[in-house]
């Protein structure tokens, strides 16, 4: 058998790869032109030449608390069970990959350990030093560890991308890291906006996690709106008890309906049957303030009008592409006022604008930044 002539690329993530949409986009992007090996949890993604599977029983977030308190950060990292497991899988593989794509800061030290001749690209999915800053214990004991991790290892990556402009600016301001941006957009889908009728209740929709307090503003707003509207929620059972509470609470409601989650490839068509995608995320932390979640781009692929809170990244997308309305603040009253102010003509126009923006705001366009970064590193091996 002839050896594979393609450059070798390792994609590392401490996540279940087959359900990690961002990592799967990377695998799909590179698996034709590169011989891709993956390291992560769960079964092998399609299209890779090798998969290094982390043991299912290894917890990816566990750190030795005593080491964190004592600021023994290098020891805390190297002794973390997931790092120990990953190092065992990578034993003897130093310099055996031309390029390594490290997802999230936790994998970057291991990527650098491998000393790939092309280099390391880091894709940082959050602003890690402030990820859970609303939790006092996390802020006191874990945040210093992540600041150390970014300062010590993140700054050594050959190139970096992240999920939004605000987070990229903060990495540059605090650590001097110049990060490109790849937003969490799904693939382009060919759809037309569904019709909007004057006398039919406005059909609102939200999809995502059933996470306590995340839906409070939207649900409270439904009690405040004065015009006929319905709200369909397609929810993943991240908090089973909370989801059951919602199901009981709205079992007899003809205005708020709870649905099971929809597979990502089916989501745009499901959303397309609605009029307005709604999301308001109160800024309880830095990452919440600067969030630009995939649901915003799911709404666009579904050809919906959008109503979002004044989170800077979400508001910028909505205003730039004229695809909806930004509320005055993060309260339920402000959301209800914005929804009550929508006319059928407004919604038609916003849905058409979503259709116009759908190709630009798709994965096919966004992933080009990854392609340029990895190809640039691989080109170093050409001489």
Write the layout of secondary structure elements.
Layout: E1 7-16, H1 21-30, E2 34-41, E3 50-53, H2 65-69, H3 73-79, H4 81-90, E4 99-103, H5 108-113, E5 119-124, H6 136-152, E6 159-162, H7 165-175, E7 179-181, E8 202-209, H8 216-224, E9 229-236, H9 240-249, E10 256-259, H10 267-271, E11 276-279, H11 286-289, H12 294-301, E12 305-308, H13 312-321, E13 324-326, H14 332-340, H15 344-357, H16 363-366, H17 368-379
Parallel strand pairs: 1-2, 1-4, 2-3, 4-5, 5-6, 6-7, 8-9, 8-11, 9-10, 11-12, 12-13
Helix pairs in contact: 8-14
Task: For the structure shown, list the relevant keywords.
383 residues; alpha/beta; Rossmann fold; 7-stranded parallel sheet; 17 helices
Could you please describe the fold and organization of this structure?
- The two termini are 27 Å apart.
- The longest helix has 17 residues, at 136-152.
- The protein has 383 residues and is α/β, with parallel strands linked by helices.
- Helix 8 (216-224) crosses helix 14.
- It has a seven-stranded parallel beta sheet with strand order 3-2-1-4-5-6-7, with helices on both faces.
- It has two domains: 7-182 and 367-382, 3-Layer(aba) Sandwich (Rossmann fold), CATH 3.40.50; 202-357, Rossmann fold (3-Layer(aba) Sandwich).
- Helix 8 links the parallel strand 8 and strand 9 (229-236).
- It has helices at 21-30, 65-69, 73-79, 81-90, 108-113, 136-152, 165-175, 216-224, 240-249, 267-271, 286-289, 294-301, 312-321, 332-340, 344-357, 363-366, 368-379, and strands at 7-16, 34-41, 50-53, 99-103, 119-124, 159-162, 179-181, 202-209, 229-236, 256-259, 276-279, 305-308, 324-326.
């Amino acid at each position: 058998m002839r050896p594979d002539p393609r450059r070798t690329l390792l994609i590392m993530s401490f996540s279940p790869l087959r359900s990690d949409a961002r990592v799967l986009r990377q695998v799909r992007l590179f698996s034709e032109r590169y011989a891709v090996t993956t390291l992560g949890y769960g079964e092998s993604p399609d299209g890779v030449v090798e998969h290094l599977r982390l043991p299912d029983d290894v917890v990816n977030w566990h750190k030795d608390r005593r080491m964190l308190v004592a600021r023994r950060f290098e020891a805390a990292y190297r002794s973390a069970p997931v790092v120990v497991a990953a190092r065992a899988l990578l034993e003897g593989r130093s310099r055996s990959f031309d390029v390594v794509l490290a997802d999230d800061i936790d994998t970057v030290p291991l990527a650098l350990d491998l000393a790939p001749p092309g280099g390391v690209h880091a894709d940082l999915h959050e602003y890690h030093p402030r990820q859970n800053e609303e939790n006092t214990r996390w802020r006191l004991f874990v945040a210093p560890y992540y600041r150390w991790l970014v300062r010590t290892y993140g700054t050594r990556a050959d190139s970096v991308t992240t999920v939004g402009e605000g987070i990229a600016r903060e990495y540059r301001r605090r650590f001097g890291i110049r990060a490109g941006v790849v937003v969490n957009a799904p693939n382009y889908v060919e759809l037309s906006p569904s019709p909007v009728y004057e006398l039919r209740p406005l059909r609102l929709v939200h999809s995502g996690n059933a996470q306590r307090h995340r839906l409070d503003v939207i649900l409270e707003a439904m009690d405040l709106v004065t015009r006929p509207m319905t709200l369909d929620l397609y929810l993943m059972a991240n908090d089973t008890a909370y989801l059951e509470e919602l199901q009981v609470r709205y079992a007899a409601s003809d205005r708020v309906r709870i649905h099971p989650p929809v597979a990502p490839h089916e989501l745009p068509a499901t959303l397309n049957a609605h009029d307005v995608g709604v999301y308001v995320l109160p800024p309880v932390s830095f990452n919440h303030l600067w969030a630009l979640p995939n649901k915003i781009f799911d709404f666009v692929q579904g050809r919906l009008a959008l109503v979002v809170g004044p989170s800077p990244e979400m508001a910028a997308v909505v205003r730039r592409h004229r695809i909806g309305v930004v509320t005055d603040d993060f309260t339920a009253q402000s959301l209800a006022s914005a929804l009550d102010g929508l006319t059928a003509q407004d919604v038609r126009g916003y849905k058409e604008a979503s259709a116009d923006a759908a190709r630009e705001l798709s994965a096919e366009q966004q992933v080009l930044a990854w392609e340029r970064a990895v190809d640039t590193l691989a080109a170093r091996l050409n001489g």
